[in-house]
Design brief:
- By secondary structure, the chain is mainly alpha-helical.
- The chain has a domain of 64 residues: Rossmann fold (3-Layer(aba) Sandwich), CATH 3.40.50.2300.
- The protein is 46% helix and 10% strand.
- The protein has a 3-stranded mixed sheet, covered by helices on one side.
- Helix 2 packs antiparallel against helix 4.
């Protein structure tokens, strides 16, 4: 968000500078909505944590667990950012 602020302070918005963000934080999602960020990469930390705890419990019980669990990352754009805003609100980790 510091880069977005610097671009605005320097009067360089609308000069073709592409800004990207990582994670579905409220600031990044709002930046995508208002156009100050072009694209973001969203992970799903809720599911990452949930699956980690679930597998830790299995491991403690002596059950077998997968050696590796893969999670998808998705691009957030102005066209689909609302989906991520709703997901995060459902997880109660950010607000609109």
């Amino acid at each position: 968000m510091g880069i977005v602020s610097a671009i605005k302070s320097a009067g360089l918005q609308n000069k073709g500078i592409i800004v990207t963000g990582v994670d579905s934080t409220e600031d990044v999602m709002n930046g995508i909505k208002d156009g100050s960020i072009s694209v973001g990469v969203a992970q799903d930390p809720y599911q990452m944590g949930y699956q980690s705890v679930e597998n830790a419990i299995k491991w403690i019980k002596g059950e077998s667990v997968q050696k590796e669990i893969k999670f998808d990352c998705e691009y957030m754009t102005k066209d689909n950012v609302e989906k991520f805003i709703q997901r995060e609100a459902a997880y109660n980790t950010s607000s609109k």
